[in-house]
Amino acid sequence: MTPANASLKSDVSSSPDWEKIRADFPILQLHIDGKPLTYLDNAASSQMPQQVIDRLVRYQTTQHANINRAVHYLSEVATLEYHNARCKLQQFINAREDREVIFTSGTTDSINLVMHGYGRKFIKAGDEIILTTLEHHSNIVPWQMLANEKGATIRVVPINDKGELEVDEYEKLFNERTKFVGLIHVSNALGTINPIKGMIDFAHRHGVPVLIDGAQAAPHITIDVQALDCDFYAFSAHKLCGPTGIGILYGKAALLEAMQPFKGGGDMITSVTFEKTIYNTIPHKFEAGTPPIAAAIGFGAAVDYLTAIGIEQIAAYELGLLEYATACLNDTPGVRIIGTAAEKTAVISFAIDGIHPHDIGTILNQDGVAVRTGHHCAQPVMQRFNVPATSRASFAFYNKKTEVDALVAGIKTVQKIFL
How far is CA 94 from the centre of its chain? Predict the structure, then answer.
C-alpha cells in the first residue's frame, strides 16, 4: 500500500486479466537451460510489451527522420510524434506545461542536468545539500562532485532498522545554509516508499528546492508533480516497459528558465556567432543535438500501455505479490529480509545465512530465476545494515505467484548445495 493510495488493497478480484497481459511480453516465453524464465529483476529494468515493440518498429519503418530541421513529410511526422510523446509524459505526471518535460538519457542524466544547470549556478561555498541514506549512487555522486568543486557540504538523513527515513532527523538538518535537497521516492535496494510530500513541504517552508529521484516510483505509484509540488522529478523509460537510453526530467518552468544549459550544440540555440550564443527556450535549451527520437516515441507508447491498465490497478496487484513473497520468505528458515518498511513497493532484498549473494544468484539462474545480487548502487544502505550485498527480487504486474514459488524452491536448492 502506498501513502498516495491509502485505500489500495491487495484484493484485485475486479482487476484486469493479468494472464492476458502477461502474454503481451514475448520475452517471458524464454527458457534458460531448459527452465522457464522467472524474471524477478524488474527494479533494474522491466520488460517490454509487444505493443511498444510494434510502435518502435512502425516509427523506424514508416516515420523515421530527424526533427525540427526540415519541411519534408517524414521530418514533419517525426517532429509531431516526438512532440506527442512529450505531451504524453506531461499528462502521465500531471505537469502544468509540456515544456516542463525535458527528455534525457535517463534518471542519472536528469540528476546530472540539475547538478550542472542549477547546482553549479546557485550552490556556493559553505552551502549545504541534504541527501538520504537510501539514495542511489546517481543521486549521491553528482552532488559530491559539486560539493568538492564549490566547497559545499552534504548532510545525510539516517534510516531506522526497518529501512525507513528518520524524518525528525531530516528536519533537524535544516539551517540558513541549506540550499538544496535530493530525495529518492522509492528505494531501489529496499523498496521503501518515502513520505516525500511532507518532506517537500518542509523544505519549501525553508525556501529550499527539492529534486525527487522517481526511477523506482514511476512504475508503481501515480505521480502528480503538481500535487507533490516538487521542483524537479526524474525517471527512466526502461523501468516502465519502455526503451533504454531515455528518461525525463520534470522541472518547474521558472527554475528551468533560470538554469544554465548542461550541454551545448545544435537545437538548443536560437542564434550563434563567434561572439555570442543565444539559448533556445525550454525544453529545447536542455536537448542539445539530435534527440533519441525513436526512444521518446517508444516511451510515449509505454506510458499509453501502462495508463490503459491503470497504475493503481498495477500497484494493487503488485502489493498482493509482495505480501505473498514476504510471507513465503519469512517462512523459509535461514532467509532474512533486509528492509521491512511499513510502506513498500514490490521489492524484497534478502540474505541467506552463510551464503554469498553472488552464489545465490548463480544457482537461481540455473533454475531460470533472474534476481539482482550486489550492492544495487546503494552502498550506504548496505553499510547501514552491515552487509556486503543482498539478493533482490523485484516484481512487476506480469509476474505471478507461481514465480514466487519458483524463487522459494530455488532458494532451498541453494541451501542444499552450500549448507
Answer: 17
Which of 195, 235, 177 has its CA nearest to residue 3? Answer: 195
Contact by Cβ (8 Å): 64, 292: no
Q: DSSP string covering 274-290, please?
A: SS-EEEPPTTGGG--SS
Amino acid in position 357: P
344 - beta bridge partners?
192
Annotated active-site residue 377? The verdict is: yes
C-alpha grid cell, residue 177? 545554509
What 3-9 contacts at long range (C-beta under 8 Å, 24+ apart), as own/partner pairs, is 3/193, 3/195, 3/197, 3/343, 4/197, 4/221, 4/222, 5/221, 5/222, 5/312, 5/315, 8/312, 8/315, 8/316, 8/319, 9/316, 9/319
- Nearest one of 396, 301, 341, 357 to 2, comparing CA atoms: 341
* DSSP-H helix ranges across 24-157: 50-62, 73-93, 107-114, 120-122, 141-150
* Overall pTM > 0.90: yes
The rounded Cα 333 to chain-centroid distance in angstroms is 32
What is the DSSP secondary-structure string of 316-354?
HHHHHHHHHHHHHHHTSTTEEEE---SSB-SEEEEEETT
Burial (CB < 10 A; 0-12, 13-18, 19+), residue 211, is buried
Residue 338 bridge partners (DSSP):
349
- Tens-place pLDDT, residues 160-210: 999 999 999 999 999 999 999 999 999 999 999 999 999 999 999 999 999
- Residue of 87, 230, 328, 377 marked active site: 377
Residues 3-27: b if buried by 16+ CB within 10 A, e if exposed: ebbeebeeebeebeebeebbebbee
Q: How far is residue 97's CA from residue 84's CA, in Å, rounded to a whole number?
A: 13
DSSP strand pairing (232-236 vs 247-251): antiparallel
pLDDT of residue 14: 59
Rounded to 5 degrees, what are φ and ψ at 45?
Answer: -165, 130
Ranges under pLDDT 70 in the chain: 1-14
Nearest partner of 180 among 224, 142, 215, judged by Cα: 142
